[in-house]
Amino acid sequence: MKTMLELITTEMEAAFEKAGYDKELAKVTLSNRPDLCEYQCNGAMAGAKKYKKAPFMIAEDVAVYLKESSYFETVEVVKPGFINLKLAPQSVADYLNQMSETEKLGVEEAEEPKTIMIDYGGPNVAKPLHVGHLRSAIIGESVKRITRFKGNKVIGDIHLGDWGYQMGLIITELKKRKPELPYFDENFTGEYPAEAPFTIGELEEIYPTASSYAKEDEEYRKEALHATYLLQNGHRGYRAVWNHIMNVSVTDLKKNYERLNVEFDLWKGEADAQKYIPDMVQMLKEEGYARYDEGALVVDVQEESDKKEVPPCMILKSDGAALYDTTDLATLVQREEDYQPDEVIYVVDKRQELHFTQVFRCAKKTGIVSPNTRLEFLGFGTMNGKDGKPFKTREGGVMRLENLIREINDEMYKKIMDNRTVEEEEAKKTARIVGLAAIKYGDLSNQAGKDYIFDVDRFTSFEGNTGPYILYTIVRIKSILAKYKENGGSAEKLSIRPSGNVYEKALMLQVLKFNDVFEAVCEETAPHKLCAYIYEIANEFNKFYHETKILSEEDEEKRSGYIALLGLTKRVLETCIDLLGFEAPERM
């Protein structure tokens, strides 16, 4: 179904044309002064010059025809030429009832669905997830859900860092510790053990130890680089160790991402792109795209319109080694071959913008992706502590993600138990649900590209613009609906009625904005706008709740109308938080 803004705009266009003016002037916007009106059109000002007529007179001409429309309760012309509109309560109720009857609350799915790949997560294997991995996972998951809700075919790819120098370091350190393992015996021809020679805990200790040692010992570093080379060139024993590293790491990563309610459709990594590199490099040479610069193979991506220098995209180093540019381009080759995506969205740290500018331009210039394939860089800012610096532990180290989640859950558990309204086990389960909402909403309510302060005290508060406040509102609505049912009421086939007071209408107007808001969120890839919207709904609901007798209303028609409105409000809120990647408990 069309959004309310589209329906009002159609009415406005018809009125402008009936009054003898161009319908292009009939742009309607939400009012930024809700105390004066709900919607507004300023087109009369733009038409004054064209028609050599005072804007107030143009607006009055148009208003005559708008007053015939059943959509509006009032149409007011305000100098110098604004047309202020208030919706008729009946038209609002009719629209909300139509929303209620549709599966997706009236959202129109894409007429031509696209295949969209979202590259997010991006952890390195053999390393624990830390807070630096949080934003990519949270933002990417929400963008995936939002894009899928619009009816597109969406594929989320974690794109693991699984093929670099860290693998050579782990192999070297493992060889140093357990030289007797068959992986390091060049004469071994049997089957390698099915069980890994390390646990995830041991693996996470091996890498930093090896990394530190390589910085101090040049011979050790060279050995690790050589191990990396052998692995990447098919060394049988090292490939077996690599498979163990992958199995142990991915199992652990899946557990941690599950705690964040983040799911990937693909668990591909840099290693999967390796087989595409030789043919890609050959093509770049043969087609004349690549040139040698001081021994390195590069592709120029500078454009005439650039105000700053954009360095060439480096394909191979002077020693023939591949780089991130190479792997990312080869991954695009793989994605084109396997999925032919219409769009690829990269959810990564904004400090990588230059790298992706180079990769995108190179991919377009060389035909790795078609001219019609959209490549989008969704760069996010850093998550900082209260001191404004990147978020750390109290000891000053990088905080593991599981520890952050535990800290938030413990804080939520204390607050829930302070109320003493639920049993201990239920409190723990609720704390996990609300804790995740606190983390995700705390992140997503900020514009992705901006840095933000991760404030545990504020994010876990049940008051203000927080995840717990949104969930508390949903739980309150659930409680009212449950009591209505307990008292013999049936929520089946109830209709929303025209508003009876200003608080009810304010809530109704917020709820009917869902489609308009969702379209903007999709178009701008902006989950923060969804957060702002549900915060407004929560506020309007709580005003309505405090100012209106709902269950004690004696007029059954009014009471059932309230219940129908609350049922739709709950659906909208629950749909929105699902798109953001969290859920609401039954009780809090």
Detail the topology: elements first, then pairings.
Elements: H1 4-18, E1 28-30, E2 39-41, H2 43-51, H3 55-66, E3 72-78, E4 82-87, H4 89-101, E5 115-119, H5 134-149, E6 153-157, H6 165-177, H7 200-216, H8 218-232, H9 236-259, H10 270-273, H11 277-286, E7 290-293, E8 296-299, E9 313-316, H12 324-339, E10 343-349, H13 353-365, E11 374-380, E12 383-384, H14 401-419, H15 424-444, E13 452-453, H16 456-459, H17 467-486, H18 502-512, H19 514-524, H20 527-547, H21 556-580
Shape: globular
Q: Tell me the strand percentage band.
A: 5-15%
Determine the fraction of residues in helical runs and give it as a percent range.
40-55%
Given the structure, what is the number of helices? 21
First-residue to last-residue Cα separation = 35 Å
Number of DSSP-assigned strands:
13
Profile the largest sheet: 4 strands, antiparallel
Mean pLDDT: 94
- Going by CATH, the architecture of one domain would be Orthogonal Bundle
CATH superfamily of one domain: Isoleucyl-tRNA Synthetase, Domain 1
Helix-and-strand structural type: alpha/beta
Q: Rg, please?
A: 29 Å
CATH classification class of one domain: Mainly Alpha
Spatial order of the strands forming the largest sheet: 1-2-4-3
**Which topology of one domain does CATH recognise?**
Isoleucyl-tRNA Synthetase, Domain 1
Family: Belongs to the class-I aminoacyl-tRNA synthetase family.
Subcellular location: Cytoplasm
GO molecular function, one term: arginine-tRNA ligase activity
EC number: 6.1.1.19
